[in-house]
Amino acid sequence: MTENNEVLIIAHRGASSIAPENTIKAFQKAIELNADYIEFDVYPSKDGEYIIWHDFAFSQKDGKKHFIRDMTLAELKKIDIGDGESFPTFQEIIELTKGKIGLNCEIKAQNIGKDIVGILKKENINETTILSSFIFSELLAIKNLDSSLKVGLILTRDLVSPRWVIKFCEKAINNNFYAIHPYWRALNKDIVEFAHSNGLLVNTWTYIYEPIKDSELREVVKMGIDGLIHEDIQQARRVIRED
Asked: Which of 75, 92, 118, 178 is the most buried (most CB within 10 A)?
């Protein structure tokens, strides 16, 4: 567990249960609700800006799929992604959150880790940021840049075999990672205890489109997790306070 023995609340795509996900509005709400971290994904645009969005592409009213990498920041800023909000940039998120809340930045594209680390160090927020990814090689590259950086390996939602979760824990431990981020249905107390006995934190995540009951969330918290990556901050805080 974390030093103060409390589960960290990591707002999944911001406070996305009450505001459009991955928007300034969602991240501002997370700050107002006193989450500990916000979680978001970064992709490079055509002109090299880092854009906050969950997927590499998005659909518009024309029914076509548009790729972030093929559009400039100016083009992306013209698009309404909900409640009049536009795609935020990584720099805008930093300006909004600096000194107020930690960042859990998910690296979604290959070979961008060096740039992201450079930005974090320039802004002096590397100590309050977790760099997470499904891409193991990208996390290794980040650790090679600076071994003190906090990196977290995310496990896919379909990886629910405890044996395989342990194997990925071992992989993270062997490379001095900070944390592992398994899907909540994959967890059991033995996995959490194994990770902790080897100095690895466990931040579990829920799926935005699959609501979790208070009773289910309560059982996850009781396993001794360190952080909960969850879209409903109010539910998370309610359950954690009960524990």
From this structure: 178
Rounded to whole angstroms, the Cα distance separating 59 from 64 reads 6
Q: How far is CA 85 from CA 11, 26, 62, 75, 80, in A?
A: 18, 10, 19, 14, 5
DSSP secondary structure code for residue 68 in this structure: G
Q: Are 218 and 240 in contact (CB under 8 A)?
A: no
- CA angle (170, 172, 173) in 5-degree steps: 60
Q: Is position 208 within any domain?
A: yes
Element (H, E) at 185: none
Is 52:18 a contact under the CB 8 Å cutoff?
A: no
Q: Which is more confidently placed, 25 or 242?
A: 25
pLDDT, position 58: 86
DSSP secondary structure code for residue 156 in this structure: P
**In one letter, which amino acid is 123?**
E
Domain extent for 98:
8-242
> pLDDT tens across 218-243, in order?
999 999 999 999 999 999 999 998 75
In a domain, 1, yes or no: no
- What confidence tens digit (pLDDT) does each residue in 156-194 have? 999 999 999 999 999 999 999 999 999 999 999 999 999
Non-local (6+) Cβ contacts of 85 within 8 A are 20, 23, 24, 25
